[in-house]
Write the C-alpha cells for this entry.
Amino acid sequence: MTTLRTAVITTAHGRHEHLHRQQQVLQALPDPADIRVVVALDDPGIADVLQSAGAGPSTTVVDGPRGDHGLAVGAGRNAGAAAARTAGAELLVFLDVDCLPGPGTLAAYRRSAAGARRDDLLAGVVAYLPPPPPEGYDLDRLADHPGHPGRPIPAPGAEIRGDDPRLFWSLSFAVRPEIWDRVGGFDEDFEGYGAEDTDFAFRADRVGVGLTWVGGAEAYHQWHPSGSPPVRHLDDILRNGELFARRWGFWPMEGWLRQFAEMGLVRPTTAVGGPADGTAIHGWERT
C-alpha cells in the first residue's frame, strides 16, 4: 500500500508547554509525519517553542491571520492546510494544540485514507487527561485513559461510519486534500470560540462527504483549566451561534446557552431569520 505523504497541522495561541510536549511526542512516533505545520495565531513565541522542542527542517511556522472578533482559528486552519499542500501533503491531519497523538495515530489515519473511507472526514478518538502529576504525564500509559463517552470508540483497526455531523470535533481529524476542496475548508466568518467545526461538518454532509470514526487514531487531550459553562467565551458563543443558526436553522451549544440563562447572563429573544427557506428560529442575547 502506498504511504500517503502526511502533514500534521496545529493552530496555536499560548499553551506553550502543551505545544512543546506535543512536538516532542510527534517527533518520537515510530511512523512520524512527513510535514509539520504550526500556525501561530497572534503569538510570536511559537517558533521559539518549536525550536526548543527540537523541531527539524520539516516543520514550518505560519503566521496566522488576525481576527476582528477573537482568534481566527478557522482561517488559521485554512492557512495551515495551504502551507501543507504547498509542501506536497497528500493527507492533512489536524491536531489541536492540547492533544498528544498515540503511537499508532498517524498510521491509522493513513490506512483509512487509503481505504474504502478515503472520501470521508476521518475522526479519531479523543481521551481527556486529568491534571498531570509533578513529574508530568507518563507517556507510556496514555492508553490507560478511555475515549470520551460522547463519541464513537471503534476498536483499533476498526471504523465506524458516523451519521450525525454534530458529533464531529476538530481536536483530531484527517482529510485528503481533494475532499478538503469539496468541503471548502473552514468558514472564516467564525472567529473566536465555538461552532466553526460543527459548521464544517454540516457543510461536508451537504456535499456528500461522510464522517468515519477511526479506531487506533487516538489523541490525548492535555488538561488545562476551563470553565463549564465557558463564561469567558460567552460573546463568541452568541455571535458564532447566531451565524450558525441563520445558516442551519438551529442553535449549536444550546446546553451551554441554557446554563447561561439559568445564571442570568442571557435570555431568549424574538425569532431571527433562519435558513434560505425562510424558517424563523428563536435567538439568544445578553441580559
Notes: The mean pLDDT is 93. Residues 234-248 form the longest helix (15 residues). The two ends are 58 Å apart (CA to CA).
